[in-house]
Amino acid sequence: MNNEKLFKEALELLPGGVNSPVRAFKAVGGNPIVLVKGLGCRVWDADGNKYIDFLASWGALILGHAPKKVVKAVQEEAEKGLSFGLTNPHEITLARLVVEMVPSVEKVRFVNSGTEATMSAIRLARGVTGRKLVVKFEGCYHGHYDSLLVSAGSGVATFGIPGTPGIPEEIAKLTIVLPYNNVEALKEAFEKYGNDIACVIVEPVAGNMGVVVPEEEFLKELRRLTKEYGSLLVFDEVITGFRLSKGGAQERFRIEPDITCLGKILGGGLPVGAYGGKREIMDRVAPQGEIYQAGTLAGNPLAMVAGAETLKELRDKEPYQELEERTKKLAKGVGKILEEKGIPHRINAIASMMTVFFTDKEVRDFESAKSSDTQLFAKFFRALLEEGVLIPPSQFEAWFLTTAHEDKDIEEALERIEKAVKKL
Ligand code: PMP
After folding, report:
1. pLDDT in tens, 246-284
2. Sign of the dihedral defined by the CA atoms of residues 156, 119, 272, 35, in that order
């Protein structure tokens, strides 16, 4: 079986041949690859090609592929049963790690994906405040829940319009969409609608318009205004949780949200999401409280042990400084290569995430991110793939490093990227 044959077969059986749209390579063209193996910072496709992987399962991996400890824990647990549907001890272990590591979380509820985490957080915020409106920012992605999969209308503070057929306008209208990093728009929205706003949800570092770092005032003002108006602040740390630092973006920026959404790294490569916060908020969730949310496979033992082994490693080793230094090295190296070729670019990087934008504008919101030359990105992506470097197949995504990317791997990646860029 090779990439082409497999993908052809997938096209007959799965919409677009995939189970998540970006995997189809529509934004970059060329034939999608089918991955069959991952080890450390490398992955192999069905044709036998080997890549240095900066996709890292969309940031879900921070210890690289198939880390021994995590794999062993999952194998041992699998022998004891795959799911019980009643409480197992590993839910408690992982919950304790989350509470210990994430500053604002005192209690947590596990779900199966990031989407479920944000969806449940919104319900909780609406239930707690008795309000309907949700504020989100343009270019931030919080999963495919109806209230969050909306785009901006025209103007600075606008009511959302459905981001896809299938979402009723009436629902999209309950979401206000604002530009990221824009304190004025935020103030304006709160002056107009503050008393009806249940919550503001934000990626505290945006990863889904490519990496965009929050300006200091932006997060501070978010915290101040939500408090003043009695709205809840929801940090969607599905990407940044356990990646920006062991306590996520909230620890790094020292701002405590009311509700935190987690996913990706939390499951150590298996499907897990979570939402958590202060006791008095989380105790409103059923069965302790009246706000309903449930899951057959929530707290699944395999996912719990994979997450727990991953978090323990991060808590004990704190690899964050090293990860950040290597990311800087990669960013600087790529910058130099593009500079030499005379290609306009901006590289946004923080902790172990980065994005190369093909623009000469500073990228601080979705509008400026969109100034990037996506045609050139597509060529760049394909050239890198040909040289054995895998990055996310869209301009508006983050590259991720893992602890398995050693200095020599970064150097090798840079050599390959240089070769690829020469051919552009
Ligand atoms: N929030 C953020 C910040 C994300 O990046 C994602 C997925 N990329 C989600 C939520 C949704 O998570 P999932 O794909 O697990 O549903």
Report:
1. 999 999 999 999 999 999 999 999 999 999 999 999 999
2. negative
- Ligand 1 centroid, distance to 58 Cα (angstroms): 9
Structure tokens belonging to residue 136: 């989100």
The alpha carbon torsion through 185, 348, 354, 48 (nearest 10 deg) reads: 120
Q: With beta carbons less than 8 A apart as the criterion, state whether 176 and 158 touch.
A: yes
Domain of 119, in residue numbers: 68-317
Measured distance CA(66)–CA(279) in Å, rounded? 35
Whether 110 and 226 share a structural domain: yes
Identify the three-state secondary structure at position 354. strand
Q: Closest ligand 1 atom, CA of 237?
A: 3
Counting ligand 1 atoms within 8 A of each CB, the residue from 140, 146, 209, 239 with the most, and so the one to mutate, is 239
Q: Phi first, then psi: give them for residue 322, nearest 5 degrees.
A: -65, -40
Q: Rounded to whole angstroms, how far apart are CA atoms 62 and 268? A: 8
Give the DSSP letter of residue 355.
E
Task: Report the C-alpha gap between 159 and 186 in whole angstroms.
Answer: 13
Distance of CA 414 to the CA centre of its chain: 25
Widest distance between CA atoms in the chain: 61
pTM recorded for the entire structure: 0.98
For residues 105 and 96, the answer to whether their CB atoms sit within 8 Å is no
Residue 383 three-state SS: helix
Task: Answer yes or no: do 355 and 380 share one domain.
Answer: yes
The candidate with the shortest Cα–Cα distance to 228, out of 283, 261, 189, 179, is: 189
Residue nearest to atom 10 of ligand 1 (CA): 142
Q: What is the pLDDT of residues 79-121, one digit of tens each?
A: 999 999 999 999 999 999 999 999 999 999 999 999 999 999 9
Q: Best of 208, 211, 240, 297 to mutate for ligand 1, by most ligand atoms within 8 A of CB?
A: 208
Nearest CA to ligand 1 atom 5: 239
- Asked whether residue 142 falls in the same domain as residue 184, the answer is yes
CA distance 276 to 96: 12
Q: What is the DSSP letter of 212?
A: B
Residues 309 and 326 in one domain: no
Locate all alpha helices (DSSP H) within 53-174, ordered by sequence.
56-59, 68-78, 89-101, 114-129, 169-172
Residue 158 reports pLDDT greater than 90: no
Tokens standing for residue 210: 């490519």
On whether both 74 and 12 belong to a single domain, the answer is no
Q: What are phi and psi of 135, to 5 degrees?
A: -105, 130
